[in-house]
Structures are given as C-alpha cells and as structure tokens.
Amino acid sequence: MSGETVYTGHLVTVNGEDISVRSSRNGSCYSSFELLRAKTSDSSELRLTAPQNLIVIDSIKSGKGRTLDNDFYSIVVKPVLDMIGYEHTVIKTKSHDTVSQIAKELNVNESHTVIFISGDTSISEFLNNLSTKSVFNSEQGKAELCILPLPMGTGNAWASSLSHVDPVQSFGKYIRGSLTLESFPLYRAVFPDDYSIVFFIIFSLGFHANMLHACENPELKKMGTERFRRAAETILQNYNLDHSITVEHSVGTYAYFALINTPNLELEYRPSPLSDALKSELHLLGYSSNLNTKKLTAKIMQGYQNKLGDYIQEDKNVTYRSFKSNFDIILNYPKDSPRHKFEICCDGTLINLLEHQRDDIYNKIHFEFLRHYSDFSLRVFHR
Predict the structure, then answer these.
(1) Is 227 helix (H, G, I), strand (E, B) or coil?
(2) Residue 137 burial (C-beta neighbours within 10 Å; 0-12, 13-18, 19+)
(3) CA-to-CA distance for 196 and 194, rounded, in angstroms?
(4) Do residues 7 and 22 make contact, with C-beta atoms less than 8 angstroms apart?
(5) What pLDDT digit, counting tens, does each position of 240-287 carry?
(6) Going by DSSP bridges, is the β-strand pair 186-190/202-206 parallel, antiparallel, or unpaired?
(7) Fold match between 50-182 and 187-370?
(8) Using 50, 70 and 90 to split pLDDT, how confident is the model at 1?
(9) Run of H or E including 213
(10) Do 54 and 87 touch, CB atoms closer than 8 A?
(11) Superfamily (CATH H level) for 50-182
(12) Structure-model confidence comparison of residues 357 and 41, the more confident one
C-alpha cells in the first residue's frame, strides 16, 4: 500500500523466547500487527511484580477502528500478558458510555493500573467520571490509579507528549519495567450554568474548535488525519474568525485561541513547544483576527517546525503566555452572534457555550488548576 511503513520492534524476552512485533502503519493509523516468537539462548528472566487490578480498555472505534489485522489487544497485549502471568480484565467499548461507566465503578479503596488502547477522548471520558466524593487535602492515603496511554487514536496528543509514540515500544517498556510513573496536572473549565469539564490537553475557541466541530461531518470522519486538512479549508474559507476575548482584564481579538497543557497535538505537530504534560501550567496561544488567511495559516502550520523548548515570539498578532493559577475568560460578543463563535473543543469533547449560559454570568468561563481532583492518586507512565 502506498505510504505504508512496515517495521519490526522487540517487545520482551520471556520463557526462552524473543517476542517481537511486526507493525504496518499508514500515517498515524495502524493497519496490522503480527506477533513474532523466536527461541533464544538468553537465560535472563523478567522479575516483576504483577500489578493489582490490571485493566485494559480498548476503544475499538479510535483511529480508524479495529480489524482482525490491527486488533492490538488480541494480537499483542493479551498473549504477552498471558505469557508473563499478568491477570487482567479487558473491556472493549460497546457504547458511548462504556468508558465513563468503568470509571464510575472503580473501587477507590484499591489500586488499579489501566492500559488505554485508544486516543485522547477515551482518557478524557475516563478522568471526567472518576469518583470525587471524598474530600482529600493531599494525595496521602489514596489508592493509586496508574494510566498507560498506548497511542491508537488519531491525534494522540497526550501520549505523544509523554513520549509514547508507538504502542509496541511503550507496551514493551511497560512489560520490562522501564517506564517512570509521575503525577500529572488536571484543569477544570466551569461554565456560566455551573456545567464543568476536566481537561489535560487543550481548551480552544476559534479556528481549532471550529475545525474539530466541522470534523464531525460523517463524510470527514472516515478520512483519518486527512479530515483535519479538509475541515481547516472549510473554516478558513467560510467562517468569520473574529473572537473578542478578555483574559484576566486583557482584551484581544483572536482567530485562533487555545489554552494548552501539552506540547503536541499530534505526533508531528507541536504548537506549544514550552508546554509540559507533567507540569501544572497552561499556555495561552492566540493568533490575531487581523492576520489574513495566508499569514494565519503560516502561524498555525509553524507547529510542524517547532522543537521542544522553542520560544514563540509575541507581537501584536501573536499571544503566547503562561498561567499557573486560576483565571477567567469572557467572550465579548452578544448571544445572537453566529453559533460557530461559541464552539469549544475540550480534549476532543465538543461543546457550544450557548447551551451553558446564565443571564447573570453571561459568556464567562472560569478555569481551575486542580490539586486534589479524584479519590485516587492519579499517575501516568511515561518514558
């Protein structure tokens, strides 16, 4: 197949066998996996303690979905976990609320390890539905909930920002015990009607949010990452990208407005190079509505050239600043403005502010930096 990359990666040595995986990938989507086993004279053995309550969540529609050839759980994860004696529960998504139900039903008195074979949205649904009933002033005394994100979605922003760029490599490192566990930051957006959503990647208005809303078109949803390009063309040609937004008493007009926690939004796309997925800090990246289409496109596409640690120079058309504590934003336009001006994307969840208004707090969104969000001590495996 044109554009397809085929490669073989070592996974683990166990019971006198070298276990490898041959993968075929086209862009960010995997078309097939094959488990390879070869006898070896290597006598080294894994000396690891099986995790308590190991759960594998396979979001079967993530990326381009699962087939007999690219079912990573059935082809790779299950046989390898069986080889090394790790008991586990697998849950393959059957409906839109499968992941949220799993999160709600977890026993907060026991530690869990959850492997996600998914994209970002499933992890967002999971985190937003964890128990938050108890009041903890610290992480002490909480059971641990450890997350391993294996990148099998379309964007994989969080996984790639944590250096999980290939599901085989990351699963192999997990099995061999060579990943590091760290806590990670979470944020909450609170809307005028008190509806709230927890996020850990991006909250956007303007171009990015409009593009993700447009991608819900059934014809575009079939196209993988190509749908982003097609949707972007539609937005740039047909939308009035002029959002007047007040952030902490500073008013700006934006075509692109995003609060970002991760450097990457895709594996090769790094719009916020100073962001760190493990650091409690949001970066506001804004591009002015004064930019013409060509210049706005160039600014947005710069994310494909950015390297970690690069500084984005601010000027009259570019805003790049960080926030480390709670703040508010206010949209400075009336409720009869075009509906697309109220479109929001929050870690893949699509929201319209018009559906969450209250007359006395109209157009205001409050952002909280969460210190002790869940009844679990949340941690993530990273490389």
Answers:
(1) helix
(2) exposed
(3) 6
(4) yes
(5) 999 999 999 999 999 999 999 999 999 999 999 999 999 999 999 999
(6) unpaired
(7) no
(8) very low
(9) helix 207-214
(10) yes
(11) Probable inorganic polyphosphate/atp-NAD kinase; domain 1 (3.40.50.10330)
(12) 357
Residue count (the chain): 383
Mean of all residue pLDDT scores within the chain: 93
Q: Answer for the pair 259, 367: CB distance below 8 angstroms, yes or no.
A: yes
One-letter amino acid of 3? G
- Report the predicted TM-score, pTM, of the whole model to 2 decimal places: 0.94
Dihedral (CA of 159, 161, 166, 168) sign:
negative
pLDDT at residue 226 is higher than 90: no
Kindly report, residue by residue over 182-208, the tens digit of the pLDDT: 999 999 999 999 999 999 999 999 999
Domain boundaries, the chain: 50-182, 187-370
For 187-370, the fitting CATH number among 3.40.190.10, 2.30.110.10, 3.10.310.10, 2.60.200.40 is: 2.60.200.40
With CA atoms as reference, report the closest residue to 227 among 60, 66, 28.
28
Torsional sign, CA 139, 142, 148, 153? negative
Comparison of pLDDT for 225 and 77, the residue scoring more: 77
In this structure, which amino acid lies at residue 184?
Answer: F
- And the tokens for 228? 């982003």
Q: Are the C-beta atoms of residues 58 and 27 closer than 8 Å to each other? A: no
Nearest CA among 159, 123, 184 for reference residue 348: 123
